[in-house]
Amino acid sequence: MGETKTCTVRTRKFMTNRLLQRRQFVVDVLHPGRPNVSKSELQEKLGKMYNVSDTKAIILFGFRTQFGGGRSTGFGLIYDSVEAAKKFEPTYRLVRFGLAEKVTTSRKQIKERKNRAKKLRGKKKAAVTSKK
User: Fold this and answer.
1) How far apart are CA 116 and CA 128, in angstroms?
2) Neighbouring-strand partners of residue 10
3) Side-by-side strand order, sheet with 71-79
4) What is the pLDDT, as a whole number, of residue 124?
5) Closest Cα partner for 57 from 18, 21, 26, 28?
6) Which of 33, 40, 67, 89 has the smallest set of CB atoms within 10 Å of its CB?
7) What does pLDDT average to over the chain?
8) Cα angle, residue 114 at apex, residues 111 and 115 outer, rounded to 5°
9) 28 with 45: CB under 8 angstroms?
10) Closest C-alpha among 16, 13, 37 to residue 25
């Protein structure tokens, strides 16, 4: 039922960032009568708007629904390629969009590594913390 209602996507503060191989912008979504809009649906709409060949290169995050509903605002990045996204995006965002696997270690291992690192300084500390 909710899928039949339309949503309008607008972008503002559009900027091309050549150094990070991406276009970045603020996304305004008008969705009256709907609680919110899925990121996958927004990826498709932005892909059509900006002629993006692979929608996996579009990263959306930080969406907040305005009080009273009907309007959401968030941030969007369109990378030149999926490889560029993998290079520059933080791992947790890549995991959200299915571009990377989450590294799982036990809580106890993380705490033991942290406590070992507290006793060391310099190169020895870097060697202990970099091991995964």
Assistant:
1) 8
2) 28
3) 8-17, 22-30, 71-79, 58-65
4) 86
5) 21
6) 67
7) 90
8) 90
9) no
10) 13
Report the run of H or E that residue 36 belongs to, with start and end: none
Side chain identity, residue 72? S
Q: What is the pTM of this model?
A: 0.78
Q: Which of 115, 101, 110 is nearest to 131 (CA)?
A: 110
* Rounded distance between C-alpha atoms, residue 83 and residue 27, angstroms: 23
In degrees rounded to 5, what are phi and psi of residue 20? -100, 10
CA–CA separation, 89 and 82 (whole Å): 10
Contact 29, 43 (CB under 8 A): no
- State how far the Cα of 73 lies from the Cα of 26, in Å rounded to an integer: 7
Residue 33 neighbours by CB distance under 10 Å: 12
> Please, what sign has the CA dihedral across residues 44, 101, 79, 23?
positive
Q: Which two tokens stand for residue 125?
A: 């500390």
Residues 62, 74 contacting (CB under 8 angstroms): yes
Token pair listed for 132: 């995964």
The answer to whether the beta carbons of residues 54 and 82 sit under 8 Å apart is yes
